[in-house]
């Protein structure tokens, strides 16, 4: 599958170092994740695009016991996640897609995935697949590269200022150019349209660090 190959090439090798370099506040965001789901009674979480298991690691180390299912199409990412999380009996890892799952959850995350998918129905299909695997009122948290052309361009310049020292200028220029011209970020308004069309209540933005925005929302069927 082409998207599995994209994730393999871009995310598997040196993934942790990469995200910590390019996403200011990344660990702060992850550290706060379990708290965002504090009101979820049944601690049953679906992590879509789980990668090497960074967010899963936060949940298995939380005071409350979570049952976590992580799914990712990349064999290498799942391999790394299994190595990292092998001691935990409350984690299930699936090499595949959300559509391969046939049960429902009370909570879900989708971090740094949607911008890889074109807005030609692929984004909406993924969000619908997630919503279909959540009970009514389930909490959903998403983090993604976001912004219309103008906003994205301006926030990329902010990101440039926030990057750690020691990166080569060519590396910075190439990465920022790729984000602007080769990925598929959409505006915050479009994110809201996609989420509501998929079956969620309007998302609430609670986090932003340059081009990266995070939202929390619930699946339709219960008050926020």
Explain what this protein looks like in three dimensions.
The relative contact order is 0.15. This protein has a seven-stranded mixed beta sheet with strand order 3-2-1-4-5-7-6. It has one domain: Vaccinia Virus protein VP39 (Rossmann fold, 3-Layer(aba) Sandwich). It is built from nine helices and seven strands, in the order αααβαβαββαβαααββ. With 224 residues, the chain is α/β, with parallel strands linked by helices. The N and C termini lie far apart (36 Å). A hairpin with a 2-residue loop joins β6 (204-209) and β7. Residues 1-7 have low confidence and may be disordered. α1 (2-12) packs across α5, α3 crosses α4 and α6 (122-132) packs across α9 (188-198).
Task: Give me the secondary-structure topology.
Layout: H1 2-12, H2 15-22, H3 26-36, E1 44-48, H4 54-60, E2 67-72, H5 75-85, E3 91-95, E4 105-111, H6 122-132, E5 134-145, H7 149-162, H8 169-181, H9 188-198, E6 204-209, E7 212-218
Notable characteristics:
224 residues; Rossmann fold; 9 helices; 21% strand; disordered N terminus
Determine and state the CATH class. Alpha Beta
Q: Tally of extended strands?
A: 7
How many structural domains can be distinguished in the coordinates? 1
Beta fraction? 15-25%
Structural class: alpha/beta
User: What proportion of the residues is helical, as a percent range?
Assistant: 40-55%
Averaged pLDDT: 92
The CATH superfamily is: Vaccinia Virus protein VP39
Distance between the termini: 36 Å
Poorly predicted ranges (pLDDT <50, ≥5 residues)? 1-7
With strands numbered from the N-terminus, the spatial order across the biggest sheet is 3-2-1-4-5-7-6
- In sequence order, what are the helices and strands, one letter per element? HHHEHEHEEHEHHHEE
Q: Determine the CATH topology.
A: Rossmann fold
């Amino acid at each position: 599958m082409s998207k599995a190959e994209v994730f393999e090439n871009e995310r598997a090798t040196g993934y942790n170092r990469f995200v910590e370099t390019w996403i200011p506040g990344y660990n702060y965001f992850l550290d706060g994740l379990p708290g965002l789901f504090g009101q979820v009674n049944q601690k049953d979480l679906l992590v879509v695009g789980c990668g090497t298991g960074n967010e899963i690691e936060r949940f298995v180390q939380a005071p409350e016991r979570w049952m976590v299912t992580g799914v990712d199409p990349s064999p290498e990412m799942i391999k790394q996640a299994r190595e990292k999380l092998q001691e935990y009996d409350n984690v299930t890892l699936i090499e595949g897609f959300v559509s391969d799952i046939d049960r429902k959850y009370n909570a879900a995350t989708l971090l740094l995935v949607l911008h890889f998918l074109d807005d030609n129905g692929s984004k909406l299909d993924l969000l619908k697949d997630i919503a279909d695997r959540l009970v009514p009122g389930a909490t959903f948290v998403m983090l993604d590269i976001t912004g219309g052309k103008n906003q994205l361009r301006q926030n990329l310049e902010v990101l440039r200022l926030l990057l750690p020292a020691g990166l080569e200028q060519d590396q910075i220029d190439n990465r920022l150019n790729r984000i602007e011209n080769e990925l598929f970020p959409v505006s915050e308004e479009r994110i809201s349209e996609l989420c509501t069309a998929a079956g969620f209540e309007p998302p609430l933005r609670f986090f932003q660090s340059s081009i990266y925005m995070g939202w929390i929302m619930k699946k339709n069927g219960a008050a926020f």
